[in-house]
Specification:
The protein is mainly alpha-helical. The protein has one domain. It is built from 7 helices and 2 strands. It has a two-stranded antiparallel ribbon. A hairpin with a 2-residue loop joins strand 1 and strand 2. The longest helix has about 30 residues. It starts with a helix and ends with a helix.
C-alpha cells in the first residue's frame, strides 16, 4: 500500500515537473516551424483511399454485404473527383464582381453537390438496406454527420466533399 502511494506520488511529481519545464520552454518562432504543403494530389488520393478503407472496416461487412460495396466505393471516388474538379474551377474563376455573383456561385455549387450527394445515396442504398442496426449506427458519424441540438451537420462537413473545401 505504501509502495503504491509512493509510486503515485513520484508519478505526480514527474508530471508536475515536466509540466513546469514545458511551460518554461519558449515556443518556437514562426520562422523555425517548417510549413509543408502536404496536400498534393497524391496526398489527397492517399487520404481518400484510407478513408474508404476505414469506412469499410468500421462497417465490418459480411460476405454478402461485400458484394454491394463496389458501387459505394465507386460513387465515393466519383464524388471526390467531381469535388476536386470544382475546387480547381473555382480557383481559376474570375473574381466575383459583387456579392450577388458570390451568392449565385454558391447556389450553383450547392445544386451540383446535391446531385452528387443524391448519386451517392442511390449507390449506397442497397448496401445500407442490408446493414444491421449496429452497422447503420456507425456510418453517419464516420462520414461526418454528427448530431447537435439543431440536427445533423450540413453537407459541407462530409468528407465526401473535402476536396472542394480546401
Amino acid at each position: 500500500m505504501l509502495r503504491n502511494t509512493l509510486m503515485a506520488s513520484a508519478a505526480a511529481l514527474v508530471l508536475l515537473t515536466g509540466s513546469a519545464i514545458a511551460q518554461e520552454a519558449e515556443p518556437p518562432e514562426p520562422a523555425d516551424i517548417a510549413i509543408v504543403d502536404i496536400y498534393t494530389e497524391g496526398d489527397a488520393a492517399a487520404v481518400l483511399a484510407a478513408r474508404i478503407a476505414a469506412l469499410k472496416t468500421v462497417l465490418e461487412l459480411t460476405p454478402d454485404q461485400e458484394k454491394l460495396w463496389d458501387p459505394v466505393e465507386a460513387s465515393i471516388r466519383q464524388v471526390a473527383a467531381d469535388s476536386a474538379k470544382r475546387r480547381a474551377e473555382r480557383a481559376a474563376a474570375e473574381p466575383p464582381a459583387d456579392f450577388l455573383t458570390i451568392l449565385d456561385r454558391i447556389a450553383d455549387a450547392e445544386a451540383v453537390r446535391a446531385t452528387d450527394l443524391k448519386a451517392f445515396v442511390a449507390a449506397a442504398r442497397p448496401l445500407v438496406d442490408s446493414l444491421s442496426d449496429e452497422q447503420k449506427r456507425r456510418a453517419p458519424a464516420f462520414l461526418g454527420l454528427t448530431e447537435s441540438g439543431n440536427g445533423p451537420q450540413p453537407t459541407s462537413q462530409l468528407w465526401l466533399f473535402e476536396e472542394e473545401e480546401g
